[in-house]
Design a protein that fits this description.
Cytidine Deaminase, domain 2; binds zinc ion; elongated; Rossmann fold; alpha/beta; eight-stranded mixed sheet
Length: 508
């Protein structure tokens, strides 16, 4: 049943840009052997144990908290090509080898920064590859010492054919593991394995889709774990789409309960979910408060819709803020994060997770700008970003003033007259959300289905303005010193704290 992507154990994740550089170095067309080193951050999937969530909200009926062993990932941070004749030279036992200096320089950086070390070379062939006996013997001679120098942080090797990869990872003690796959993340997703894998035949109900994406595409959807942060108007549409497409696993995060004014926009919401009859303005305040207190959580409405669409989908619905550390941890082993929450803190967090854990994200929203009582603009926007590429911070979309306002308590905000109830009272209509959600899911489908055109850029940021009918595409910029997508965070995985809210009641 489980395809390569589902196997636990170890895998490697690399961005599209890094992959292009590595592939060009290993396969310049001379049919010869070349070498490189990858320095990698580490993401262990058992981190942020999912049971934490179950403990906090035991009362939600039928919610399925997934144990979440998606395997451990080596996140490629640096690709260091070995220069032929200087760093990569004739070997005494094998054909070629990395020089002792090149190895020493790289293992020193790894030891300093807590990174895993992977030596890389290539063989001939296309869709199948394995280490030679000479390769394995050299690992056994060299890696115990390297592991020691690296303070027990994994070291190992990858060997590539032009469309395949195998790995031998040394984990410390007596433990060694192969890699299940290497994934290239970004607009054009690609997965390499040691040998070709057969795709399971898709369920016949997906017949019309498999005519586009094939059985393999349908299997990728079934193996995908998708997070949606914010289950209001836009998030509820996203959630329904991915469930109907056959996505295997959903993580739904939103602390809010449904309000009667959400009913025109939230897919699947019923009048009784909002307890509208208790919350009518003519009711006593006490009765209205009761209605507010017992209205349904938005995540549970989305989960109900998703389950109606798919009997096999696994859902983790979390009616809490994504800013809580154990909730944020749920994002770190997802395959894609959709951000449909209109908060700068959530934007900063998802943006950081995306670049730190090499998980693509799409931020979506709709906005109606009003000035002096006049509507000045109406638009919906979808921004798909690839790790290491355009980031919300670099493009001015996480304003510092907004972070400050959101970080103050609601009481303080009221006192300072920032009545920030955008979510409830901002102008909004279901169609704007649907346009943004459709574009976001289309981009993701083209990516996982391998249908993105070769020369498409790594990111896709597009807004639609119905008053003029304009569709505007924006090429995001990247600031190399950015604290969120730059070297201080990029691909560091578990080796860096996420910008979550400080745990309350924990003075340490
Ligand atoms: Zn070899
Ligand atoms: Zn950035």
């Amino acid at each position: 049943m489980a395809g390569a992507a589902m196997s636990s154990g170890w895998s490697v994740t690399i961005t599209g840009e890094q992959w292009a550089a590595l592939h060009a170095h290993l396969f310049p067309g001379d049919e010869d052997e070349h070498g490189a080193v990858l320095r990698c951050g580490i993401a262990r999937s058992e981190r942020g144990n999912r049971l934490l969530v179950r403990d906090v909200i035991p009362a939600i009926d039928g919610t399925d908290y997934v144990a979440g062993d998606r395997g451990n990932r080596l996140l490629v941070r640096d690709v260091i090509p070995a220069i032929d004749g200087t760093d990569y030279v004739a070997g005494d036992r094998g054909y070629r080898k990395l020089t002792a200096e090149f190895v020493a320089d790289n293992i020193d950086v790894c030891a300093d920064e807590g990174l895993a070390y992977l030596a890389v070379h290539n063989h001939g062939g296309h869709d199948k590859v394995a280490f030679s006996g000479t390769d394995m013997a050299s690992h056994e001679r060299g890696y115990p010492a390297l592991l020691d120098i690296n303070g027990g942080v994994p070291v190992g090797a990858l060997v590539f054919a032009s469309g395949a990869v195998a790995g031998d990872i040394w984990l410390g003690g007596e433990e060694r593991a192969p890699i299940a796959h290497l994934r290239v993340v970004g607009r054009s997703r690609l997965e390499l394995t040691p040998a070709p894998t057969a795709a399971a035949v898709a369920d016949p109900r997906f017949d019309r889709q498999t005519r586009i994406f094939g059985d393999r595409g349908q299997q990728i959807l079934a193996n995908s774990k998708v997070a949606i942060v914010g289950l209001g108007g836009a998030g509820s549409v996203l959630s329904e789409y991915v469930a109907r497409l056959g996505v295997g696993e959903l993580v739904l995060i939103d602390p809010d309960r449904i309000d009667p004014t959400n009913l025109p926009r939230v897919v699947g919401a019923r009048r009784r979910d909002a307890l509208a009859w208790l919350r009518h303005p003519t009711r006593l305040a006490l009765i209205r408060a009761l209605g507010e207190r017992f209205a349904a959580f938005k995540v549970n409405i989305a989960a109900r819709v998703a389950r109606q669409a798919s009997s096999t989908i696994r859902i983790t619905s979390v009616p809490r803020s994504v800013m809580e550390p154990d909730v944020a941890a749920l994002l770190t082993d997802c395959d894609h994060i959709f951000l449909a929450a209109d908060s700068a803190l959530a934007r900063r967090l998802v943006n950081s997770v995306s670049h730190q854990y090499l998980i693509p994200n799409t931020q979506i929203g709709a906005k109606v700008s009003v000035k002096d009582g006049e509507i000045t603009d109406i638009f919906s926007v979808s921004r798909m970003s690839s790790p290491g590429s355009g980031c919300l911070q670099c493009n001015g979309l996480i304003p510092a003033w907004k972070l400050t306002v959101e970080a103050t308590s609601p009481e303080q905000r009221k006192r300072q007259q920032y009545i920030d109830d955008d979510d409830v009272h901002a102008p909004s209509v279901i169609t704007l959300n649907a346009v943004a959600a459709s574009r976001a899911i289309d981009d993701w489908l083209m990516s996982v289905g391998g249908l993105v055109e070769r020369d498409a850029s790594a990111d896709h940021w597009v807004s639609y303005h119905p008053r003029t009918g304009e569709v505007v595409e924006i090429e995001p910029v990247k600031d190399d010193g950015c604290l969120q997508c730059g070297p201080t965070r990029f691909a560091l995985g578990d080796g860096k704290e996420l910008p979550v809210a400080p745990a309350s009641g924990n003075g340490g």
